[in-house]
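Let us work through a complete example step by step.
Step 1: write down the sequence.
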Amino acid sequence: MLRHLQGLFLFFFSGLLCFALPAALSAEPSLPDSPLVEATPLASDAFDQVNASARGLAGLTSPGGDAWENTSAWKDYSAWVDSRWSYMNRVRLNAMRNWSGGALGELRDAHTVYYPFSGPDFLYVDTLFPDSKYLLMAGLEPVGSMPDLAALQQQGHLPDYLKQVQTSLYTILSASFFKTKDMKNDFGNGLVDGLMPAMIVFLAHEGYSIDSIHYVTLGGDGQLHEHAKADAHGVQISYYRGDRDNLHFLLYFQCDLSNDGIHDNPGYVHLMRRLGPGVTYLKAASYLLYEDYFSSIREAILNDSIGVVEDDSGIPLRDFDLNKWNVTPYGNYTGPIDLFKEYYQPDLAAYYARAVPSPLPFGSGYKFVASRSSLLVARKK
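Step 2: predict the structure and record it as tokens.
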């Protein structure tokens, strides 16, 4: 039964080594009892190669120019990315940035943001929470490897690789989420072997430089451990914009967040606690948190979060104790899409009718048209 239900929900749900340090740089200092591995900066040559490939994947040119920029495959890909990003900025991202500054207030400055059921969606969570120090993401898809576009070009694989990345990005750059049914094919087809390329596209296009990449495993106590790339279930990426003294950390783990999965390895919920308290973001989460067999992660979110920002596919309104939470509605609650129609919340519809919600100037989640979208912003009292 569980396997059948997970199959239904997953329809929408939503070789780099560590290099030696250059003499002028030192590793990011570890905080006392930090669960992270030491963030060792990439050596100079590796830094240039990784960030040139990242910019290339994002459809952006590098200052010194790279050979792939002269290929028709990359030029076509770059033009497509540029057109989709222009569209996204116009209809969604700019509005999200403006809205978050007012509606989220102090939550926007959260030190830690939890984003379970994220897949590789760095773009949306960073747009709403650009100042977070730690971003903790999770999905069922493998991490994959950081591509070297120069090597792919030399091997004759660059056109196919770019085409596969473009296919994988189509839905989120047109709507606002990844389809996990498609992700199984898009991110596991040999050339594109996981979520890393998509995360890298978002990092680079939003103006970040990648400082380090460490493949990791997650212990049951929430401690990260360095691991070989081939079978790592997690990655720790440190990145910055402008000033390296202000490092951010993206942590992605391939893990099962059902009760059975957390029972077998409680590392994700322990890492939440060790990095928290934080703010949780939930978007296009397949209504998994409505189910009893996802009660453990639901309880962890409610216990360890100072705020929750979610569409109606996240935690049901009934699970927020209004004696402990202030819940502010935005937009219009028009119910789930037909695939999830059994998760309609009459109490949420009544709450919207009583509260007279403020407008939501952008679309998000499965109903990605602004006039049909809703978000709840919950703050713990």
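Step 3: interpret the result. The longest helix spans residues 72-103.
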